[in-house]
Amino acid sequence: MISLKEIVEKLKVEPVSSVHSLDRPVASGYASDLLSCAMRRAKKGYVWVTLQCHMNVVAVATLVGLSAVIITEGNSPDAETLSKAEKEGVVLLVTPRSTFSIVGELASLGIRGDLEG
Amino acid sequence: MLRPFLADLHIHTVLSACAEVEMIPPLIVKQAKRLGLSLIAITDHNACHNVEVMIQAAQGTGIHVLPGMEVQSKEEVHLLCLFDTVAQCQQWQETVFAKLPSLSNKEDIFGAQFVVDVTGEWIRTEERLLAASTDMGLEEVVAGVHSLGGMVIPAHVDRPSFSLLANLGFVPESLDVQALEVTSRFVPATGVPQWPQLEAWCLIVNGDAHRLQEIQNRTLFKIAAPVIEEIGLALKGEQGRKVIVEWPDSRQRS
Fold first, then answer.
1. ipTM for this model
2. Do A36 and B137 touch (CB under 8 A)?
3. Are B172 and A39 inside 8 Å of each other by CB?
4. Cα separation of B203 and B179, whole Å?
5. A117 inside domain
6. Which helix (H) or strand (E) segment is B139 a member of?
């Protein structure tokens, strides 16, 4: 299974929290900007791609047990969100690129979606 | 002494591109009167150009009009921003416009945005696209409105889009608001199990009216005066102030 470290290296996304937890494996992927959808459809060990950077993103990641969240389009979490992510061991990765580009590259690395139907 | 104010705090005018042309001051006042309302708020998308004429149109009718707007945060969450005075609202307008992208409205796609006079006659057409996301986070909007003495109520939280619960999944722990607005279709018996968090919140029903028929008269405030401070007390249930909502299921039971 591909690890976060490999994703960080290949996609050049920048880790901004829990930077020492990049050895985590990534089971699958999910993309949406509605957190209510991510809560339902993203599962444990997934990487979630979104342009939202609100504090609730960290809560969703914790709740679901995500491997990491990739925050796209240059959106950057504020200090409070970063500190919460650090405390909860949530890996946030940021990139100026679009969700479409990132998801395309994740797919080309062999990460697939909808493991559970 | 406390008085009852039957209220709808979320009404659009023809300034909102998606509103019908009937949403002009005299007709809104007439419909509000027909529904027995004594407190309404005018909340167009990211703008308040028609607020002052609405207040004028309601003068002498027994209907109090709160100036406001429906701001779209950068998370695409819709937030009612309500004020006591036009001056406060206009000051907030400046902040909102500074954070709103400079795009032109496409009338043929979105509809026109009309600024009107007290009789509803056309004065000018707002060319700037109003129904867009401002570059302000949810908490930033709340803090900004509070600093001007206003109040924020997250709008139509039970809607599948542009809502706090859809876009951000749940109400953030530290969000400094007193109540949440639900749509007229919300029924506690089914809605609360769907979003258990709502159990702990004061909920009010507004029409989010884009046409006259959508204006609602199901939220009753018992307050000393139709002002933000009193409404805040009612939403918190403090000092004897109250808000009573008529729910569809409670109507059936009685």
1. 0.89
2. no
3. no
4. 6
5. no
6. helix B138-147
Model pTM? 0.94
User: The tokens of B8 are what?
Assistant: 């709808």
How far apart (Å, rounded) are the C-alpha atoms in residues B114 and B124?
6
Number of domains in chain A: 1
Using only C-alpha atoms, chain B has a radius of gyration, in whole angstroms, of 17
Are B48 and B42 contacting, i.e. CB atoms less than 8 angstroms apart? yes
Q: Within a domain: residue A113?
A: no
Question: DSSP character for B96?
Answer: H
Amino acid letter for position A117 = G
**pLDDT by residue (tens digit) across B43-71?**
999 999 999 999 999 999 999 999 999 99
Rounded Cα distance between B204 and B183, Å, is 9
The residues with which B6 forms a beta bridge, in sequence order, are: B220
Residue pair B167/B75 in contact (Cβ under 8 Å)? The answer is yes
Q: Which chain A residues have a beta carbon less than 8 Å from that of B166?
A: 34, 36
Does the CB of A34 have a partner CB in chain B at under 8 Å?
yes
CATH of the domain at B74: 3.20.20.140
pLDDT tens, position by position, B156-186: 999 999 999 999 999 998 899 999 999 999 9
Residue A101 within any structural domain of the chain = yes
Q: What is the CA radius of gyration of chain A?
A: 12
CATH number of A98's domain = 3.40.1390.20
**Residue B190, domain extent:** 3-253
Instruction: Tell me whether residue A78 is in a domain.
Output: yes
